[in-house]
Amino acid sequence: MADPVGVVLVSHSAALAAGLGELLGELGGGSVPVALAGGRADGGLGTSPDLVERALAEADRGAGVVVLADLGSSVLTTRAVLAERTGAAVPAVLVDAPFVEGAVAAAVAASAGAALAEAVAAAEQARDFRKF
């Protein structure tokens, strides 16, 4: 299989990101690089541009990275980091998708060999998934 698309989880909570990351690891069969940017660098609640940058580098295997953020300011932090990545060799796309469902959809698509655009579309389509 070609290099997989990576997934980055940006959350205000390290525990929330870790729990979702654990789920994605199981669903992706360990083949999808999942990186976490949860909480602040000091361990508190919030978001950290440095953690987002590190997570992007960690998830990058050459096929692109799908980025999901949990709440408003994590979106703003992620957008600022992505804006600074001009000229990056590997694209990273912040998707407008529900955090859990979108991450699951992106990881499952990536584990099946989907290209970045397909993994992004899968995450965005998760917005329409009904639970019952």
- Determine Rg (CA atoms, Å): 13 Å
Category from helices, strands and their pairing: alpha/beta
* Strand runs, count: 4
Average residue-wise pLDDT = 94
Low-pLDDT ranges: none
Can you write the helix and strand succession as a string?
EHEHEHEHH
Distance between the termini: 35 Å
Shape: globular
Largest sheet: 4 strands, parallel
**Helical content (DSSP H or I, runs of 4+):** 40-55%
Strands ordered across the widest β-sheet: 2-1-3-4
How much strand?
A: 5-15%
Secondary structure tally, helices:
5
Oligomer: single chain
Describe this structure in words.
The chain is an alpha/beta fold and 132 residues long. The chain has five helices and four strands, in the order E-H-E-H-E-H-E-H-H. A four-stranded parallel sheet has the order 2-1-3-4, with helices on both faces. The protein is globular and about 35 Å long.
What's the short story on this structure?
With 132 residues, the chain is of the alpha/beta class.
Blueprint of the fold:
Layout: E1 6-11, H1 14-27, E2 34-38, H2 49-59, E3 65-69, H3 72-84, E4 92-94, H4 99-111, H5 116-125
Parallel strand pairs: 1-2, 1-3, 3-4
Helix pairs in contact: 1-4, 4-5
Give descriptors for this structure.
132 residues, alpha/beta
